[in-house]
């Protein structure tokens, strides 16, 4: 394999990994607050279709991303009201959100199937893009990829270094105790869920504006689910999510690479790789009960109702 | 304390709080002076917790005024309470296990407080030394013992320079040494002018440390007293209303035949901070209560788990019932042979939180209530409501979810359920933990009744007074070793206390070595 091919593979890995990175960053924040939102796929699809429609209508990809963010946020708000305010079961509500988003996105996007638009163009960052290998792999992308880099580092700082991160971790760890010391648990959770929605929206927009600048029904092809697996794979750590996103990115383009090398493996088998990797990581984590305890937010998936505190 | 020249720290007037189906606080008034240690006493469900939660801003009262340092205030949230200088240590600690001590404390502080403090870790170390709390800021809470966690909670209040510290049953989880350490801290605080509101069930502690006491019953203030002028018995009388015999001095009995045997039981710890059981041997006879004393975390949980079958590892021939080895049987099979258990943890182990009391009764009590594979709901409901009446369990009825009961009431229910099976062997841990005086008496009598019927009872408790009251023979555990088993009449608190501290171990390990060399 020559070095040019390696660079191309890694460049493509970053590109395919970016939507996973966006959505998984959103989900990890949501899960750190103790809320499991299985509606990622639905939120992402709605972001993709609304982002595409807005960009198609206005001719501006930037407005498309903005519209997608708003749409993702609206979707997550629906989820938040049902789960946080009305105390609905998180798993069932999340699944419903995915089904809802899948259907609604297909419906509102039916008129523009097959249309194309001018998406974001790559911007080579001066100097940085001239670095051998790395420059082409990391710094010859479009603005959204750079945004995802920035988001990762901002979140790492916020989660591990600030009071906001401490509060978020505390809420996900023990909402009753957090409530007792005066943290507004539901407010923190609302914000975390909405952040997840906005990120899912951007992730959807990345699919329909950059990855393949068009709208096709169900175009996210299960990335919302892969992101859920990715969060577990990364054991709720921001840095590992970035790494995992690119690894999963490589896994999902592996069949193209292998075909290029003349090997024929069913792409369906290779598409399983992210899930297999996640299962293996889960087994490794669970083997040490104590470690697992320290990783997953303890109240994940559990309803918290401050009115029941007596 | 001269009242006339001091503004009261806290004054409550006519606090009333109505919950659906229960008037938790009924026109409660109370005054606390600076530096006063004030006990809040009452049986379970008397309204103590609701009242302190009102002061701490967790519960909003329906009626009544709160006057803080002479000014009327409205405490709408715990953060307002903390800003005023009110700190609270909860009965169930409100710490975050995956965070460090210093992070836990930081979460409770406002930005301005943090700026004032500067280096939080240094401040914690400093206060820790000043009050003898021995709290290291960088440690993760999950690695701390219960006593250490409580000190972290107190530290959390100290860092904010509290003016009123509320403690909800602070000593129920502590060793005697830890209790005296805690009292030292409280006295220092009191001398510095910090008022303390102290909820406890242990009356001798109240008479020892508190300046004043307010007694609640059924949500009302029924009496106030100066504890130093009272005796535990006279306070108990005020609490329950009728004459409760505190130290009834039950007759001791001698067991007849050995029913349950533990032989050469050694077992490695399963949990990272568990205790390894080391060569335990004892015999439990029918018609006796064998009490095992010990400071929490010295192997009691592990012993309980292996005897009940909850710990599924089997140590061949280590446990036998009526002469036959039961170490391979699982918990259900052991129950069928006539063994019953009351675990320490009521919710989650003693009862399923989300299930009704009726369903929880059925869980351990299946014989007789299942006919041809069908559940006889009618009779199990009847039986459950009998249990509720007999043990005075305060709840809405047999359909109440287990988690809706207060700790003490659930304990009464679980004790009743297990005793009601007329077990051959009953293993129970902390039978009256968090239970009020009246109910504890009922539980004691039920245990003695069961003993007199010929059951063998193993009583694991941290409450030495209770062990001396009930047990016919006694032993202590320390670091996974079991002390010699002796008749209660032939020992005293000093000896058991020394055994709890492990003075017997040297001899044991020495004899182990002798055996090994022989």
Shape of chain A: globular
Q: Which whole number gives the mean pLDDT of chain A? A: 88
Number of strands of chain A: 0
How far the N terminus sits from the C terminus of chain A, by CA atoms, comes to: 66 Å
Report the helical percentage of chain B: 25-40%
- Assign the CATH topology of chain A: ABC transporter involved in vitamin B12 uptake, BtuC
* Largest sheet report of chain B: 7 strands, mixed
Q: Quickly count the helices of chain A.
A: 14
Overall SS class of chain B: alpha/beta
For the record, what CATH class of the largest domain in chain B applies? Alpha Beta
Shape category of chain B? globular
Question: What report would you give on this structure?
Answer:
The complex is a heterodimer of chains A (310) and B (518). Chain A has 310 residues and is mainly α. Chain A has 14 helices and no strands. Chain A has one domain: ABC transporter involved in vitamin B12 uptake, BtuC (Orthogonal Bundle), CATH 1.10.3470. Chain B folds into 2 domains: 3-240, Rossmann fold (3-Layer(aba) Sandwich); 258-349 and 421-517, Rossmann fold, CATH 3.40.50.300. In chain B, helix 8 (203-209) crosses helix 9 and helix 12 packs across helix 13. Mean pLDDT of chain B is 83; it is low at 510-518. Chain A binds chain B through residues 163, 166-167, 169-170, 173-174, 176-183, 290, 293-294, 298, 309-310, and chain B through 19, 50, 53, 57-59, 77-82, 90, 93-99, 103, 106-108, 111, 142, 272. Chain A: It is found in: Cell inner membrane. Chain A: This is ABC transporter permease. Chain A: Keywords: Cell membrane, Membrane, Transmembrane, Transmembrane helix.
């Amino acid at each position: 394999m020559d070095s040019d091919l390696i660079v191309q593979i890694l460049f493509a890995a970053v590109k395919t990994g970016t939507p996973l990175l966006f959505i998984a960053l959103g989900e990890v924040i949501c899960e750190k607050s103790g809320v499991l939102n299985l509606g990622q796929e639905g939120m992402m699809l709605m972001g993709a279709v609304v982002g595409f429609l807005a960009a198609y209508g206005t001719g501006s990809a930037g407005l498309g991303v903005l519209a997608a963010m708003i749409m993702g946020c609206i979707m997550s708000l629906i989820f938040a009201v049902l789960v946080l305010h009305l105390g609905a079961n998180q798993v069932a509500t999340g699944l419903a959100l995915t089904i809802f988003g899948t259907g609604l996105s297909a419906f509102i996007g039916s008129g523009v199937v097959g249309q194309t638009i001018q998406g974001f163009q790559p911007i080579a960052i001066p100097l940085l893009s001239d670095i051998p290998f790395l420059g082409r792999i990391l710094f010859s992308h479009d603005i959204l990829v750079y945004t995802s880099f920035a988001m990762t580092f901002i979140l790492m700082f916020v989660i591990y270094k600030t009071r906001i991160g401490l509060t978020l971790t505390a809420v996900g760890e023990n909402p009753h105790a957090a409530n007792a010391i005066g943290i507004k648990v539901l407010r923190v959770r609302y914000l975390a869920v909405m952040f997840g929605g906005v990120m899912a929206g951007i992730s959807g927009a990345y699919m329909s504006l950059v990855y393949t600048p068009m709208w096709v029904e169900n175009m996210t092809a299960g990335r919302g689910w892969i992101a859920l697996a990715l969060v577990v794979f990364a054991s709720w750590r921001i840095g590992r999510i970035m790494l995992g996103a690119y690894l999963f990115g490589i896994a999902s383009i592996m069949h193209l690479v292998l075909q290029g090398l003349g090997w024929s493996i069913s792409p369906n088998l290779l598409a399983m790789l992210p899930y297999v990797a996640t299962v293996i990581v889960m087994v490794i984590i669970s083997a040490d009960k104590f470690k697992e305890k320290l990783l997953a937010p303890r109240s994940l998936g559990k309803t918290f109702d401050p009115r029941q505190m007596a | 304390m001269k009242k006339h020249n001091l503004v009261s720290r806290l004054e409550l007037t006519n606090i009333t709080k109505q919950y659906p189906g229960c008037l938790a606080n009924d026109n409660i008034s109370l005054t606390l002076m600076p530096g006063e240690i004030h006990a809040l006493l009452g049986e379970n469900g008397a309204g103590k917790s609701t009242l302190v939660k009102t002061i701490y801003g967790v519960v909003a009262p329906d009626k009544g005024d709160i006057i803080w340092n002479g000014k009327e205030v409205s405490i709408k949230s715990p953060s307002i309470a903390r800003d005023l200088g009110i700190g609270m240590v909860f009965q169930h600690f409100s710490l975050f296990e995956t965070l460090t001590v210093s992070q836990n404390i930081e979460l409770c502080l406002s930005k301005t407080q943090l700026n004032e403090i500067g280096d939080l870790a240094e401040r914690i170390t400093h206060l820790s030394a000043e009050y003898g709390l021995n709290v290291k800021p960088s440690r993760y809470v999950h690695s701390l013992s219960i006593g250490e966690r409580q000190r972290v909670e107190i530290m959390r209040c100290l860092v904010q320079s509290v003016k009123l510290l509320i403690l909800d049953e602070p000593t129920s989880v502590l060793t005697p040494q830890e209790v005296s350490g805690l009292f030292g801290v409280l006295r220092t605080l009191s001398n510095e002018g910090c008022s303390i509101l102290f909820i406890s069930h242990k009356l001798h502690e109240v008479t020892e440390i508190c300046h004043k006491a307010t007694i609640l019953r059924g949500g009302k203030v029924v009496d106030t007293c100066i504890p130093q002028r009272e005796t535990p018995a006279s306070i108990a009388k005020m609490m329950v209303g009728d004459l409760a015999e505190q130290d009834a001095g039950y007759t001791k009995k001698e067991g007849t035949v050995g029913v349950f045997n533990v032989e050469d039981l050694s077992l490695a710890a399963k949990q990272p901070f568990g205790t390894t059981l080391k060569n335990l041997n004892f015999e439990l006879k029918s018609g006796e209560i064998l009490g095992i004393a010990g400071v929490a975390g010295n192997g009691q949980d592990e012993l309980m788990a292996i005897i009940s079958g909850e710990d599924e590892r089997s140590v061949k021939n280590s446990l036998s019932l009526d002469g036959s080895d039961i170490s391979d049987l699982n918990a259900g099979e052991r129950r069928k042979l006539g063994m019953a258990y009351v675990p320490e943890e009521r919710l989650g182990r003693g009862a399923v939180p989300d299930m009704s009391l009726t369903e929880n009764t059925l869980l351990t009590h299946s014989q007789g209530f299942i006919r041809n594979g069908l559940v006889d709901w009618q009779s199990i409901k009847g039986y459950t409501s009998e249990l509720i009446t007999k043990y005075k369990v305060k709840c809405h009825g047999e359909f109440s979810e287990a988690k809706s009961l207060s700790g003490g009431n659930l304990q009464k229910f679980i004790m009743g359920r297990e005793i009601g099976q007329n077990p051959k062997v009953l293993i129970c841990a902390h039978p009256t933990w968090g239970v009020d005086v009246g109910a504890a008496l009922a539980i004691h009598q039920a245990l003695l009744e069961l003993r007199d019927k010929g059951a063998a009872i193993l009583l694991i408790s941290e409450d030495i007074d209770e062990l001396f009251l009930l047990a016919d023979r006694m032993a202590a555990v320390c670091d996974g070793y079991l002390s010699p088993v002796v008749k209660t009449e032939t020992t005293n608190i000093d000896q058991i206390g020394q055994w709890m501290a492990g003075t017997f171990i040297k001899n044991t390990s020495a004899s182990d070595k002798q055996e090994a060399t022989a």
